[in-house]
Structure formats: structure tokens, C-alpha cells
Design a protein that fits this description.
Layout lengths: L3 H10 L7 H11 L12 H9 L1 H4 L4 E2 L2 E2 L1 E5 L5 H8 L3 E6 L2 H13 L16 E5 L19 E5 L1 H4 L5 H11 L7 E6 L17 H8 L28 E7 L13 E7 L5
Parallel strand pairs: 3-4, 3-6, 4-5, 6-7
Antiparallel strand pairs: 1-2, 7-9, 8-9
Amino acid sequence: MDQPHIRDQLLKHFSVPAEEFGSRWSQLWDKGEFLPWDQGAPSPALADILANRKDIIVGTSRVSGRRKRALVAGCGRGYDVLLLASYGFDVYGLDISESAIKACEKFAEENKDMYPVMDETFGAGKATFISCDFFSKDWEKEIRGGATFELIYDYTFLSAIELAQRPAWALRYKELLSDTTPARLICLEYPTHKDPAERGPPFALPPKIYLAHLTRPGMKISYDADLHLLEDELPPVNPSSTLVRVAHWQPDNTHPIGKGTDWVSVWTHGTDCR
């Protein structure tokens, strides 16, 4: 999405009021001709974490007699959902576009062999795809056992939504991240190198944006006219409601579009730094 002609086409398509962004994403999926965010494979950074960072995942793929649940909002064609399921999670992929969800289900059915079971002890989890508005709570009734998750993965979703939705994005993740079992929110931070004044989507997301919002879920965060974070105007962190960043690094493996600029951040509740 870094090529100028792609950026220009996206900017033109999303030159509408922010409340119309959801329908604009759906239009692109409905046509299926211009999907520059579709990388055709799971995130290499996520694959590395699942394979090599058991300290991040925290324990086995089961908890309290059930499989751990994972969530991917803005799941696209569902590659990361299927990868997580191969590691034993029951995974829920959300997308506002019904066409995207149909594409997920078709891809999952036709490519089962691409996602072999990674731990025979636990077997594969179930991948479920839901067409919904992430910010609504209507979809939560479809989550078996309750709408909390031991693992949440965010990649490009934050970059796809308008700035006014960022406080709600952080608050929703705080609400959905389990606080009764060890749980992690993993963000693959992208695009970190973009000038915020170029606007989006994808909107510029240097690491300080994640830090500002996830440590202050639901709080109003101010930006200037060129969409730069006003760091001097950040409200104080509330220790009882914050999410805490427990790890932050640049991944060795990631999609080519983010090579050398992507960051991984890992978050948990302030009361659970296990």
C-alpha cells in the first residue's frame, strides 16, 4: 500500500465522511478488484510469535477446561484467523463486509491443507467468521462461552478506522481481553513510518499512538490539524483501567510492506503482568 498510485486510489475512495468508511470498505470487497491490503498469507510476525514466543502466548492452548479464544478484528480473508486455529485456539474473525466474510469461508474451505495442526496434543481449534460492526456489541452473543479472549491480534485494523474511533477501539479491546485468565493483546504496528499529514487509510501509526490510546482506553486523545499526536496534552493514565505494554520489538520477519518499519507490541491488563 506504499506505492503512490495505490495511496492515491485509496485516498480518493475514502474521501467521504468518516461514518461512511465501513460501507466504503464493503464496496471494495464487493467488487473484489482492488484489495491492496491482501497479502495472500498470514502475518510472518504472528507466525514467529506463535512458534517461538511461548512467553508471549502464556501457557497452553487450553484454560478452565476449554480452548483459549482468540479474536482478529478486520480479519480480511482470514489468513491470521486460520493460523491461530492451527495452534489450538478457537478463533473469531470479524469484518464489516459480508463479502469479506464469504471470502474467508471460501478460502478456509479450499485451503485446509495450508494450515496443518501445529500441536497434536491439543489439535486444531475452530475458526468462526462473523460479519459485524466491531464497535457494536451485537456480535458478542455469537461467542461460545462469553465474549472475552485470551489472545487478540490487531494488524492494519487501527490504520483502517478514522481517528475519532481510536478511543473506542482501545476501550473495546480492554473490555474484550480476558481479565480472569492470562491474556495478551498483540498489535503489529503499521504503518509506523508514514507522515500523518498524508492521511489515510491506512493512517500513520507510530508506536506512540498505540501507547497513548491503549494506556488510556476510552479517553479523548488530541491531534493537531496534520494528525500529529499532541503529546503535551495527553490526559493522565488511570492505573485501574490502563493496559500495560509488556513487550515491544521490531520483528525479524514481517510482510515486505512493513520490513524494517513494523513493530510488535504486547499488552495486558494492568492487574495481570504475568
